[in-house]
Design a protein that fits this description.
heterodimer; B: 355 residues; 5-stranded mixed barrel; 31% helix; 15% strand
């Protein structure tokens, strides 16, 4: 119980300098960075004058420009669904028996894209409300992977290969359903953190929509930048022979891209464009990249640890990785 | 990252997209078909940014309820959802849980009046429980978080504000996670918006450097992508002397059809110059699937009346005829057909450089 601290003169405890923007904060830093870049433009141009550097920047920028419309579309759609779709809508539609609920929940991911940013907290809330965890996990895995914008972006990214869209859909759905069924068989509620009182669902309405959109676009944009940069480096700076060596091996190429997907944490609306640029790799390897990415990556692992606890995440994430790779190889072998 | 900063970033990215769309330089990176999407996205980003920044730019005070204040009529409204507040906790402030909305709204109005940062307003309006809530008037009386489950509050890493007594770090800080949207379950270091700073890189790269289209450097590193043209039906060439052909078209007919449809015809090809493995001149053009990043070159060798001293990346319009000769691309072993050149002239790089 705090003592009554009365500061009759200063209305707010934090020392606050004048001005709406407060003490030097992120906006000021941003402005300084931008001005600095403009001022240093000549010097930067000299540093980056080599054709190799210019090619790298062009590749990097082109992935960003191509992916941004889909990223924005996808995140805005997910934010709208999280902000406006009434609570409880999904649960009523689920079948009673868990074994049936799992595939239905997986398919529901295609229709109710909660977006990569939202699925883990939404899953946490659903479990707290008593929905069968296996179904929730299937939904949690499938929703970022097979949402409409993701499939559209995959179609745009692989214009000569329509099979890629179907393969991604199938492999991701299978992986999500298998994980849900695995939880039914092997999962123990003890691995999940106890429920909390902090209710996620209070954030509804237009205010939540705008702030979710803003936050998610910035977040995803940041990770897309990393992914695009890595892809550009692979294309422009790494020796082609070295790349061909890894890409040529069926086993190593799949493993390499699966691991890359885990590291890069690119949002699923945009990862198709990163994958498309890795043209040295086989279609199956890139399929693995696309299936693994939305389900297992550093970002998701951190969120799962936060929502469900470490003992859950440490079992769930590697299992998902294995299942996802397996399904990609299987479907890749069938389709391509 | 503060919401203002996020908004400014989005504004910058949106403006960049609009700039490259309207200036036509987007064609260096993506195909022409993407233009409407690019413009739409640029506008959307500006709108999203505007909805955050606009309430801040309006004069403080007054009766506005900006988007931040349009508090959703939430279960919070009856003030009891966060669990019953221990009477002892709430007393010093405004008389118990039932008045929490009043306290929040009052605080919001007060903060707005005092020109405080809008994240506080938003947080207050969204009913975030564990910021110090003030009465509308003068006294600053921090209360304990009325959330009876302190672990939930403490679990938000980096949230700055905690359930602890008197810690107002969440507001005095740089505003990290004071936004209602950041205080999610499972909030982790990855969600603090730090990654978003990286968006500055492509935005500044586009605005300041206008990276050029892919050219001879990439073309020489990458094998010729002739296999993409295999298997197509080779119809008779259209009328015209010389007839204008795309490089992929010419190369496919030359290699897969052995020039059957090309014999006796003069063709006009456009591309940029690149040097072959032994310095011989090739004409090349990048074929692009979805964006420049997956672009692969088509290479055609030049022989005959070829200008000397050609610099790489010079654009040429070349007229000539089919000749039955081909190189092997050292990078991927595909065939590079040749053209017997009769005339060549330098041209400016076309607006759409990719095929």
């Amino acid at each position: 119980m705090t003592a009554l601290e009365t500061e009759p003169v200063q209305p707010h405890r934090a020392p606050r300098p004048h001005g709406r923007w407060g003490r030097p904060g992120s906006v000021e830093v941003l402005v300084v960075v931008v001005i600095g870049a403009i001022a240093a433009r000549g010097w930067l141009l000299d540093q980056l004058a080599s054709t190799r550097a210019q090619t790298l920047i062009t590749l990097f920028v082109s992935i960003m420009v191509q992916a941004l419309p889909f990223l924005v579309l996808g995140t805005v759609l997910s934010a709208a669904i999280r902000a406006f779709v009434p609570r409880g809508y999904a649960e009523r539609a689920l079948p009673r028996r868990p074994v049936a609920a799992v595939p239905v929940a997986g398919l529901a991911g295609a229709v109710l894209p909660a977006g990569e940013a939202g699925t883990v907290p939404v899953a946490g809330a659903l479990i707290r409300r008593g929905v069968e965890p296996a179904a929730v996990f299937a939904f949690m895995l499938a929703s970022p992977a097979i949402s409409p914008v993701v499939l559209i972006s995959t179609a745009v990214a692989f214009p000569g290969q329509p099979g890629m869209v179907g393969a991604r859909f199938l492999a991701s759905l299978l992986a999500a359903v298998v994980m849900g069924l695995l939880w039914l068989r092997l999962g123990r509620p003890g691995w999940l953190l106890p429920a909390r009182s902090h209710d996620q669902d209070r954030e509804r309405g237009w205010a939540a929509f705008w702030s979710s959109s803003r936050h998610d676009i910035v977040q995803c944009g940041g990770f897309l930048t990393i992914g695009a940069f890595v892809a550009a480096v692979l294309n422009a700076a790494v020796s082609p022979r070295w790349l061909e060596a890894i890409a040529g091996s069926p086993v190593f190429s799949v493993i390499a891209l699966a691991l890359l997907a885990v590291l890069l944490s690119v949002c699923s609306e945009a990862d198709a464009f990163v994958a498309a640029s890795l043209s040295q790799f086989s279609v199956t390897a890139r399929l693995a990249f696309l299936v693994v990415g939305p389900m297992v990556d550093l970002k998701l692992f951190a969120r799962q640890t936060g929502t469900f606890g470490p003992s859950f995440a440490i079992r769930f994430a590697p299992a998902t990785l294995g299942v996802a790779v397996l399904m990609s190889v299987l479907v890749g072998w069938l389709v391509f | 990252m503060r919401k203002d900063t996020q908004a400014v970033l989005l504004l910058l990215v949106g403006a960049t997209l609009l700039k490259i769309s309207l200036a036509g330089t987007y064609l260096r990176y993506v195909t022409a078909g993407l233009l409407p999407l690019l413009v739409g996205t640029g506008l959307a980003l500006v709108v999203v940014a505007g909805f955050t920044l606009w309430p801040e730019m309006r004069p403080a005070g007054g009766t506005q309820t900006g988007s931040g204040l349009a508090g959703p009529g939430e279960p919070d409204g009856d003030g009891t959802t966060a669990g019953s507040t221990a009477p002892g906790d709430a007393e010093p402030v405004s008389g118990g849980g039932a008045h929490r909305v009043g306290a929040h709204r009052a605080h919001a109005a007060y903060a707005l009046h005092e020109g405080h940062r809008s994240d506080e307003i938003e947080a207050a309006a969204l009913g975030v429980t564990d910021i110090p809530a003030f009465t509308g008037a003068t006294m600053a009386l921090p209360i304990l978080s009325v959330d009876p489950a302190p672990p939930a509050a403490a679990d938000r890493p980096g949230s700055g504000s905690g359930g602890g007594a008197g810690r107002d770090g969440g507001i005095g800080d740089d505003g990290d996670n004071v936004n209602g949207d950041d205080l999610d379950d499972g909030e982790s270091g990855y969600d603090r918006g730090r990654a978003g700073w990286l968006l500055l890189v492509p935005a500044l790269a586009l605005l300041l450097f206008a990276p050029p289209a892919l050219g001879s450097f990439q073309a020489s590193r990458t094998g010729t992508a002739l296999s993409t043209g295999a298997g197509s039906d080779f119809t008779v060439l259209p009328e015209g002397d010389p007839v204008r052909l795309g490089l992929l078209d010419y190369a496919s007919r030359a290699v897969f059809d052995r020039g059957r449809t090309l014999t006796g015809r003069r063709v006009l090809l456009t591309g940029f110059v690149m040097a072959g493995p032994n310095g011989e001149p090739y004409l090349a053009r990048m074929v692009v699937g979805c964006c420049a990043a997956d672009g692969r070159p088509i290479k055609v060798g030049l022989t005959g009346n070829v200008p000397t001293d050609l610099q790489p990346d010079t654009w040429l319009e070349v007229e000539g005829g089919y000749i039955d000769h081909a190189d092997r691309d050292p990078v991927n072993g595909e065939l590079i057909p040749y053209l017997q050149v009769s005339a060549a002239r330098a041209i400016a790089a076309p607006a759409e450089q990719y095929e």
